Each structure stands twice: as C-alpha cells, then as structure tokens.
Amino acid sequence: MIITDFKNIKTNYNLAKLTTFGVGGDAKYFLQTDDIEEIQSILKFCKNENLKFKIIGGGSNLLISDDGYDGLILKIDNKNIHIDNNIFSVGAGVLLRDFVNFVIKNSYVGCDFIFGIPGTIGGAIYGNAGSFGGDISNIIKSVRFINSNSEIKELDKKECKFFYRESIFKHHDFVIFDAKFDLPKGDVNAFKKIMLERIKLRNSKQPWEYKSAGSFFKNVEINNDIRKNLENILDLSKFIDNIPAGFLIESVGLKGFCIGDAQASEKHANFLINKGDAKAKDIYNLAKIIKEKIKKEYNINLKEEVQYLGF
C-alpha cells in the first residue's frame, strides 16, 4: 500500500489558508476526514512507514514554516454535536463559537469563557484554551482519542492532566476525536449579556482586525525567585499569580516592534500580528528577539502558547 491509496489524500497542499496567521508553506501530504476508521488506518500507515504526522485544528495557535511540513498533516473534520440530558458530545472539528451557540440554543450555560476564542474543540482541548479566568478543562467530562497504536481510547478529565495551557495530548501522538462536556441549565439571557460584554472588552484591547494567533506567549507564573528578581525593577503589586506576557514585552520597549510585516501589536504586545505580507520567518524571528530581550532584562524564559511546525 502507498499513501496515495487513501482516497482523500492530497499532496503538496498549502497550509497558509488553514492558519489564523495566514502564513506557512505546503504539507507533503494532507488528509481531512471525519471517519474514525480512516484515521486509525492512516495512523497505522504512518507508524509502519515511519512517516511523521501532525494534527491541525482551527490553525489558531500554530506557526507553520514557510518551507512547510515534510510529512502528513491530518485535519479532524468530526463536526458532530448532540446532547443527552446535560452531557454534550462534541466532535473535535466543531468550532468553539458553534459549540457555544448550540449550548445557548438548548438553554444551557457555563461556557462563556471560550466564546470568542478562535479554533476548534480539538485544538482547545490540546492546549487547554481559555480566557477571563476559565479554561475549557473546567467543563470537560472526558475525551475520546486514537492512540499511537491506532486504538480508540477515552480519558476522564483527571487523566487528561490539564493545567495552564497544557494537557496530556501535547506530549503524546494522540489524535483527539471528540469529547463530552457537562453543562448546567441556566439563564440564557444573562449568559448572552456576559458574552457580549466580554466581546466588547476583547475587541477594545486586542487587535482582532489583523491576522494573529491570539496570545503568543504564556503568562509567567510568579514564584519567589521571580518576585525577588523583579521587585526592584517592576511594579508587580497588581499581579497575584501570573505576570502577563504582554506587560513584560511592553516593559522592555518592544510593543509595536516590527520585523517585516510582523509586529508585536501596539494594541496588545502579546499579540504578534501579520500586518499584511509577513512571512513565517518574520514572526518566528520577532518571537525570538522578544524571548532574548526578556531573558536578558529579567532572566525569565518566556514560553510559547503557539506551536511551531516545520522549524
């Protein structure tokens, strides 16, 4: 068997259109499918042929090299969604906004913090996405996935090992297929009001008029060493557990800094934006300069929320 025997496989497929940065080269092979048996088969093929692969969700937390990816990109297109009592079963390919709209339509609440985040259910679980103090792991009951032996498995919330922007799925070749969420009935009108207020706040502080991946770096957890290092340099009095990465970037004078058409946004410094014709290498080099400057000034190693692919 050869890879082109898979009926939906595409070769030399451009990935830029699948990312919110709008940059990146071609995948040597690309497969978009909602068929769990086809996913099992292609993963078995990759293992037998020693072909590397990566999963892409909504492309919202991903920077793909201009040289592309010399392997298989697998996009999970499972968009099934249904409800049984208060348990929602949601496919990995469902957009977060579509999930929230489905929740509202059925008079449930409790997932306001994911509305407005670009991307899919699968991608959000992978990176434990969240905002306004809530993470998607707060509402997850279990996650079904295909493991590296092409077996279908399911983990409950605790087994998923969620913490800030992390999950077990970041550290294994697991392919998320769907998940179950536990949500309560509630006051839908109050729920909508909260979301609209947050959208208004988000739009006023974040540069959604440009292509970006949202927050590029993770916020920095405050420990005793960091507090001691920075107490005579920065005013940390308004921060409790974390220092916003955007605050650090702005404090070293890199807010608005550009490489080509890549910029640390003047509206929110932790948004690295594509002002029009940025290349992936521009964004990558901008991130590298920011990390080096923060390390030099504060001895802090900034860590990316964004995943690199092909670098």
TL;DR?
By secondary structure, the protein is an alpha+beta fold. It is 26% helix and 26% strand.
List keywords for this structure.
single chain, alpha+beta, 7 helices, 19 strands
Care to describe what's here?
With 311 residues, the chain is α+β, with helices and mostly antiparallel strands. Helix content is 26%, strand content 26%. It has helices spanning 36-49, 96-105, 121-126, 188-205, 224-230, 245-251, 280-298, and strands at 10-14, 26-33, 53-56, 62-64, 69-76, 81-84, 87-91, 130-131, 134-135, 140-146, 152-156, 175-182, 211-215, 220-221, 242-243, 258-259, 262-264, 271-274, 307-309. A five-stranded antiparallel β-sheet has the order 6-7-12-10-11. A four-stranded mixed β-sheet has the order 1-2-5-3, with helices on one face. The longest helix is centred in the last third of the chain and has 19 residues, at 280-298. The chain is globular. The model has no long low-confidence stretch (mean pLDDT 94).
Largest sheet: spatial strand order: 6-7-12-10-11
The backbone outline, from C-alpha atoms, is globular
Distance between the ends = 30 Å
Amount of beta strand: 25-35%
Query: Roughly how many Å is the radius of gyration?
Result: 20 Å
- Number of DSSP-assigned strands: 19
Question: Helix and strand layout, with pairings?
Answer:
Layout: E1 10-14, E2 26-33, H1 36-49, E3 53-56, E4 62-64, E5 69-76, E6 81-84, E7 87-91, H2 96-105, H3 121-126, E8 130-131, E9 134-135, E10 140-146, E11 152-156, E12 175-182, H4 188-205, E13 211-215, E14 220-221, H5 224-230, E15 242-243, H6 245-251, E16 258-259, E17 262-264, E18 271-274, H7 280-298, E19 307-309
